[in-house]
Amino acid sequence: MSNYRFSRRSVLGFGAGLFSVAATGGSAFGQAKTKPIKVASIYTVPVEQQWVSRIHKALNAAKERGDVTYKWSESIANNDYERIMRQYAEEGSDLIIGEIFGVERAARRVAANYPKVAFLMGSSFGPSKPNLAVFDNFIHEPSYLTGMVAGKMTKSNTIGMVGGYAIPEVNRLMNAFMDGAREVNPNSKFLVSFINSWYDPPKAKEASFAMIDRGADIMYAERFGVSDAAKERNVKVIGNVIDTSSQYPGTVLASALWHMEPTIDRAVKAVLEGRFEAADYGQYSYMAYGGASLAMDETLVPPDVAKLVKGKEKEIVDGLFRVNVNDAEPKSS
After folding, report:
1. Would you say 106 and 132 are in contact if contact means Cβ atoms under 8 Å apart?
2. Is residue 332 part of a domain?
3. What is the CATH number of the domain that holds 111?
4. Under 8 Å between Cβ of 217 and 235
5. What's the CA gap between 8 and 37, in Å, rounded?
């Protein structure tokens, strides 16, 4: 996810309808391929960063199965993204994966130039015919569940939340978390701050210290650095995207986890079968598809709270409860 200060939905002046004509599309691929197909990925941050690490993990799993060969470029600046995309396409990649939130126009222009190459890109907009599919990390469902944990376990009724940027993809997770906390504890109050960076642990840590000083006894760690502050100040933390409980034992109550395997595996299978098309893969990040899950440390979370949360989790997976998707910027309360 690239470094910029605007909503992904307003980057470069895009309107919501710009790509609406490309919401669905017929396949540009009519011929099956043999394993392994050639996959290349382009990342604007290091592969260790939470969001990108999930894609990297899923692709390495596909590589280990023999489905793909896999190469990648990390920490690519926005102004160099188009060049790397073209390079991988020229090298004969069958599938190119990345995140184009800050380079929508350039990336879609490149994809159009290589209609026989499959592109699967993280984006806030729709697919583009015939060959650019999109995805995003819709993990608002387990985020709601972790909010329930926090709401039940806070003693001060004050929860601190540190995010990267106030963009839809972050906002929806934080809002779902806040909704979950309020469901079980209407007295929950929130301190919300954004550090305007995808990777600045010291800045996130300082923002967390400020919230803890104001009474927050549980922290929502949308960014690296929050858990370090929580551990130092002996307060609890809620994780996001990856499970860091082994790194912070006794500190992480629960985490909303993202799994890219359902998305990656479907895209790879479609390319192998010669039926890849412009489509929105976002739904495969939902819990029902195995694209998201809840991790909860039941040595820290009381049995009655764990039972309550698991009951709601079952309702979500069974389709009996729908978590609201709210992309508006969350505010302190």
Report:
1. no
2. no
3. 3.40.50.2300
4. yes
5. 31
Average pLDDT over residues 126-145: 95
Work out the percent of the chain whose per-residue pLDDT is above 70.
91
Pair 245, 165 in one domain:
yes
**Rg of the chain, C-alpha, whole Å:** 20
Q: How many domains does the chain have?
A: 2
The three-state (H, E, C) secondary structure of the chain, written as one string: CCCCCCCHHHHHHCCCCCCHHHCCCCCCCCCCCCCCEEEEEECCCCCCCHHHHHHHHHHHHHHHHCCEEEEEECCCCHHHHHHHHHHHHHCCCCEEEEECCCCHHHHHHHHHHCCCCEEEEECCCCCECCCEEEECCCCHHHHHHHHHHHHHHCCCCEEEEEECCCCHHHHHHHHHHHHHHHHHCCCCEEEEEECCCCCCHHHHHHHHHHHHHCCCCEEEECCCCHHHHHHHHCCEEEEEECCCCCCCCCCEEEEEEECCHHHHHHHHHHHHCCCCCCCECHHHHCHHHCCEEEEECCCCCCHHHHHHHHHHHHHHHCCCCCCCCCCCCCCCC
Structural domain of 75: 8-136+261-284
pLDDT above 50 for 17: no
Read off the pLDDT of residues 186-245 as tens digits, 9 standing for 90 and up: 999 999 999 998 889 999 999 999 999 999 999 999 999 999 999 999 999 999 999 999
Q: What is the pTM of this model?
A: 0.86
Tokens of 325: 């998707």
> pLDDT tens for residues 315-333?
999 999 999 999 999 999 9
Q: Which residue has the tokens 């502050």?
A: 229
pLDDT mean over 29-37: 89
- Structure token digits, residue 309: 């949360």
Q: Which whole-number Å values give the CA distances from 57 to 137, 144, 261, 270, 325, in the listed order?
A: 14, 24, 8, 19, 26
How far out from the chain centre does Cα 55 lie?
A: 10
Cα 23 to Cα 275: distance, rounded to the nearest angstrom: 17
